[in-house]
Amino acid sequence: MNSLANKNVLLGVTGGIAAYKSAEIVRHLKKSGSSVRVVMTESAKEFITPLTLQALSGNRVSSELLDAEAEAAMGHIELAKWADGILIAPTTANSLARLASGRADDLLSSITLAFDGPISLAPAMNQAMWSDKRTQENLDSLISKGFKVCGPGSGEQACGDIGLGRMLEPIEILELFSSSFTQGAMSGKNVLITAGPTQEPIDPVRFITNKSSGKMGYSLAEAAIESGARVTLISGPVNLETPPNCHKVSVETAKEMHEAVMHHIKGKDVYIGTAAVSDYSPVEVKNSKIKKDGSRSPLNLKLKENHDILKSVSGLEERPYVVGFAAETDGLIENAENKLKNKGLDLIVANDVSNEEIGFESDENEVTLITKTDQQLIPRQSKKKISKKIVEFISRRINEQNN
Predict the structure, then answer these.
(1) Closest among 149, 51, 33, 48 to 95, alpha carbons compared
(2) Are the C-beta atoms of residues 19 and 47 closer than 8 Å to each other?
């Protein structure tokens, strides 16, 4: 189930006796490296408590269609945007009918209408209900619409009957669910990514830096790992967890980042420079804290230009596919195109950091991918989803070059 690593999985739990197995599904999803959020129908709460699934998932369980605590009180839109895949386990006969008819009168069914990714169902019901013609018609309708069905299995049921309708075991469901996700577009590739800000010291307690949070670079590292790449992440100071299965190198200054990149670049197939590297650093770093002298006269700092890491990488004789980022406050496309040309890049990702909603510290972004021959806008969405599209774009270009 490697394809579940770093995935956002929304687990829907409906009201059937098999709901007790949902706790085990959450546990296996977390163990596989997924982030899990749970949506329960009201009847599901009669079989398993929201507190149990909240404790296991680490996230608040949702059940209200109009949630005052959700973004704009529209939890179905927020959760649909967040999820990479939806698994409904158990899926009762009533839920099958609700989904097949396209109803949106509870949170779970509304999310499925607002979601544009893979949805898997794990049926669980009495054998007679499963074999009923109306249930089978609903099932056929959902399959024709792209829903994936995991099971059911055959065996003894809670009511004492024996036959088809029993929900598959959690590990069986997740093996089938994981096949909904493709993996391996960058299988075997070695990728080097820089992320976060740098800090250029002035004295022992002060430094020059910027607002970069590192979120974009870390999301790209996760996306590249999901796609099968071996990733080295060189990071400035950030407050983010290191992605699993990633070799992380921590640095502080632009000089340290340049040295780390040049040390690790050999043998890499792709270099993605998302770090907001300081262009300048103080010529002199004071050994003790600079004190005010009471004169109120200006303090002058003399700065020197730092090494251009992107130029250093793109200038290598055996260079990887080089990707840069242009964080601009004005003249977005023009400045990005100039940077693409002047630094000899294969691709530049341009984003407008003057808009705080898609700037350095936000969880969302909107970017334009620019090469020598074309441009592609990726509309506003989570940095995680944008990162996946950037990695997909890069993998296509690399494959085109190799063919």
Answers:
(1) 149
(2) yes
Choose the CATH number for 2-178 among 3.30.450.40, 3.40.50.1950, 3.20.20.10, 3.40.525.10. Answer: 3.40.50.1950
Counting beta carbons within 10 angstroms of the beta carbon of residue 356, is it exposed (0 to 12), middle (13 to 18) or buried (19 or more)? exposed
Q: What is the pLDDT at residue 400? A: 80
Task: Report the alpha-carbon distance of residue 326 to residue 337 in Å, rounded.
Answer: 9
Q: List the one residue out of 216, 174, 181, 211 whose CA is nearest residue 195.
A: 216
Residues 314, 345: contact at Cβ < 8 Å?
yes
Specify the amino acid at residue 264.
Answer: H
pLDDT level of residue 22 (50, 70, 90 thresholds): very high
- Show me where the domains of the chain are located: 2-178, 190-278+302-402
Q: Among residues 313, 373, 370, which one has the least CA distance to residue 343? A: 313
Where b means 16+ CB within 10 Å and e means fewer, 5-35 reads bbbbbbbbbbbbbbbebbbbbbebbbebbbb
Catalytic residue among 73, 113, 159, 162: 159
What is residue 318's DSSP assignment?
S
- What phi-psi label fits residue 126: left (phi over 0), alpha (psi between -120 and 50 degrees) or beta? beta
Where does the pLDDT of residue 65 fall: very low under 50, low under 70, confident under 90, or very high at 90 and above? confident
Other beta carbons within 10 angstroms of residue 161's beta carbon come to: 13
Determine the Cα–Cα distance for residues 317 and 287; give it in Å rounded to an integer.
40
Specify the residue for token string 């055959």: 154
Contact yes or no for 319/268 (Cβ under 8 A)? no
- Of 348, 366, 347, the closest CA to residue 356 belongs to 366
Contacts of 241 (CB under 8 A, 6+ apart): none
CA distance 240 to 227: 21
Assign domain 190-278+302-402 to its CATH superfamily.
CoaB-like (3.40.50.10300)
DSSP H or E stretch at residue 390: helix 383-402
**246 tagged catalytic:** no
Alpha carbon distance 384, 56 (integer Å): 23
Neighbouring residues of 145: CB distance < 8 A, sequence distance ≥ 6: none
pTM more than 0.85: no
Mean pLDDT, rounded, of the chain: 90
Residues counted in the chain: 403
Residue 83 Ramachandran class (φ > 0 left, ψ -120 to 50 alpha, else beta)? beta
Please give the Cα distance from 173 to 125 (Å, whole number): 16
